[in-house]
TrEMBL record:
This is Peptidase S1 domain-containing protein. InterPro entries: Peptidase_S1_PA. It comes from Dentipellis fragilis.
Length: 157
């Protein structure tokens, strides 16, 4: 199965025969905003994949707009949490959804296997979320290291 994707070399994404996409590396802030791949019309596009508990394996299109999200305590407006969210739409914009309730916590990677983010939520109809949100991995990993895990890494070998 091939998806609408190409890069300067004409490379297309072939669904792995064993359904396992090896993960290696991460999607940087700059790469999220300026994808190194494009759709068949030549427009910048980042195709991403996730394997969620509720919806299984799905393909989506990530946008390059990152949103800052602030959550304030209703009891004390000086207490707040700040997060960043990366918007992801379903692949074709018509039928399938990228995520469903119960998929939160799934890793979102681009179709080259680079880790992009951690799925955190969605918007739209409860059974058909038309927009999913992931916390960018580069942003999250900086905070993990700064919160007492400076030696954290993704090299499992």
């Amino acid at each position: 199965m091939c998806f609408a994707f190409r890069d300067d070399d004409g490379w297309k994404f072939e669904y792995p025969w064993n359904s396992l996409l090896p993960l290696e590396g991460t999607v940087s802030n700059d790469l999220m905003r300026n994808p190194d791949m494009c759709d068949l019309e030549g427009g910048p596009c980042m195709l991403v994949v996730k394997s969620g508990n509720a919806s299984g394996v799905t393909i989506g299109r990530a946008n390059g707009v990152l949103s800052i999200v602030r959550d304030y305590s209703p009891l004390d407006m000086s207490i707040h949490q700040t997060s960043m969210e990366w918007g992801i739409m379903n692949y074709d914009g018509e039928e399938d959804v990228f995520s469903e309730p119960g998929d939160s916590g799934a890793i979102v990677a681009d179709i080259r296997g680079r880790i992009g983010g951690l799925l955190t939520g969605g918007a739209g109809n409860a059974k058909a979320l038309d927009m999913a949100y992931a916390t960018p991995w580069w942003w999250l990993f900086e905070r993990i290291k700064a919160s007492g895990f400076p030696d954290a890494h993704l090299n499992v070998l």
